[in-house]
Design brief:
three-stranded parallel β-sheet, 14 strands, UDP-galactose 4-epimerase, domain 1, Rossmann fold, binds nicotinamide-adenine-dinucleotide, binds serine, 15% strand, alpha/beta, 317 residues
C-alpha cells in the first residue's frame, strides 16, 4: 500500500498531478501539502499546511501518514525567483534537502522532484539541446535546479534513495493559473481569448521555447515513477520534449478559434530569461530508457485547452 505526499500541491502542476495520483492510488492514499491552502480544500481528503523549509514539520507529517512516496513540487519559479532570490534559494534548495533527508531517514521508497529547462544557459546549444551539454544558468531558479540535479543524483548514489526527475519545458494546463514563470504567457493567452480581452505578451513575437501540455507532463511523471528502477539510467534529470513554439505561433493558433483576439508584444525582464533557454529539446534518453512519447502538438493542445477552459471561465467577449 502506497501513501503519497505531494508538496506544492496547490500549484499549477500539483493541482493536476493530485487528480492523476488519486485515480491511480486512491484518494485516501494521497496527502496534499502546500504553504498555501488550495482553492477548494474539500477536493482533498488530507491537506497539510507545510512550509518545506520547516524540516521538523515535514518529518512529522511524513511520519503521521506513514508516507512511502514523495512528489516534491514546492518551488519558487523563474520570474518570481529573480525578484526574490534569497527566498528562491531557501525554498528550492533547503526545501529539497529537507525532503531528501526526511525520505532517506524514513526509508521512503521513491521521491519525484522536477527540474527544468532553466538549468541551461546562454552558452548551451539552443537547437535540439542535448541531455549532456553546457549548463550555465543565469537565473537563481536555474542555478537552484542545477544544484538540485546534483543533489538528487548524490542522494541516489550515496544513500540509495530512489529519486527520479524530469527537466520539464514550459507547462500549459487549464486546472490553475501558472505561478510566476517565464512560460506563463502560453497559459494566459487562452484565458484572455476566452474572456474576450486583448492579450499583452511579455515576450517577443519570435521567442521560441520548448513547451508541453499538462496531460503529457502528468503522464510522463507517472510513467517515469512507475518504470522499473533498472531502466532509470539518468539519476540527475531527464530531458523531455514535446513541442516548441513562439508567442506568434500560439497567437495564430488561438486566433483560429477566437478571430477577434488582439495581441500586443511588450517584452519585460522575462525576455532575457527566455533568450537564455533552449528553443527545443533533444530527449532520446527518455524515449529510449523508459519509453517517453508525447501525444500533444500545438494544434491538439489548443483545441483541448479551449474546450476545457470554456467550461471554467465565463466568456464575456
Ligand atoms: P507553482 O508556482 O504553480 O506551484 C508551486 C507551489 O509551491 C505553490 O502552490 C506554492 O504555494 C508552493 N510553495 C512555494 N513555497 C513553498 C514552501 N516554502 N513550502 C510549501 N509550499 C510552497 O509551480 P508549478 O508550475 O506547479 O511547478 C511545480 C514544480 O515543477 C516546480 O518544482 C517547478 O520548478 C517545476 N517546473 C514547472 C514548470 C512549469 O512550466 N510550470 C516547468 C519546469 C519545472
Ligand atoms: N516554466 C518554468 C518557468 O518559466 C520553467 O521551469 O519558470
Amino acid at each position: 500500500m502506497e501513501k503519497i505526499l505531494i508538496t506544492g500541491s496547490s500549484g499549477q502542476l500539483g493541482s493536476e498531478l493530485i487528480i492523476a495520483l488519486s485515480e491511480a492510488y486512491g484518494e485516501e492514499n494521497i496527502v496534499a501539502a502546500d504553504i498555501h491552502e488550495p482553492k477548494n480544500k474539500d477536493d482533498y481528503l488530507f491537506f497539510e499546511k507545510i512550509d518545506v523549509i520547516d524540516k521538523n514539520l515535514l518529518l512529522e507529517v511524513a511520519r503521521k501518514y506513514k508516507i512511502t512516496q514523495i512528489y516534491h513540487l514546492a518551488a519558487i519559479l523563474s520570474a518570481t525567483g529573480e525578484k526574490h532570490p534569497g527566498l528562491a534559494w531557501r525554498v528550492n534548495i533547503d526545501g529539497l534537502m529537507n525532503v531528501l533527508d526526511v525520505a532517506r531517514d524514513l526509508k521512503v521508497k521513491k521521491v519525484y522532484w522536477p527540474s527544468s529547462i532553466a538549468v541551461f544557459g546562454p552558452n548551451t546549444p539552443k537547437q535540439d539541446t542535448p541531455q549532456h551539454t553546457v549548463t550555465d544558468p543565469g537565473t537563481v531558479y536555474g542555478i537552484s535546479k542545477l544544484t538540485g540535479e546534483r543533489l538528487v543524483e548524490y542522494y541516489f548514489y550515496h544513500y540509495g534513495l530512489d529519486v527520479r526527475s524530469l527537466r520539464y519545458p514550459g507547462l500549459i494546463g487549464y486546472q490553475s493559473l501558472p505561478g510566476g514563470g517565464t512560460t506563463d504567457y502560453a497559459v494566459e493567452i487562452f484565458h484572455k481569448a476566452i474572456m474576450g480581452d486583448k492579450f499583452t505578451c511579455f515576450l517577443r513575437q519570435d521567442s521560441r521555447l520548448p513547451m508541453m501540455y499538462m496531460p503529457d507532463a502528468v503522464r510522463a511523471t507517472l510513467e517515469l515513477m512507475e518504470a522499473d528502477a533498472g531502466k532509470i539510467k539518468i539519476r540527475s534529470s531527464y530531458n523531455i520534449g514535446a513541442m516548441s513554439f513562439t508567442p506568434g505561433d500560439i497567437y495564430r493558433m488561438v486566433k483560429k478559434h477566437y478571430p477577434r483576439l488582439e495581441i500586443e508584444y511588450r517584452p519585460d525582464f522575462r525576455q532575457e530569461i527566455a533568450d537564455s533557454w533552449p528553443r527545443n529539446i533533444e530527449d532520446s534518453y527518455a524515449r529510449h530508457d523508459w519509453g517517453w512519447n508525447h501525444h500533444y502538438d500545438l494544434e491538439r493542445m489548443t483545441e483541448d485547452m479551449i474546450m476545457n477552459l470554456k467550461e471554467r471561465i465565463p466568456a464575456t467577449g
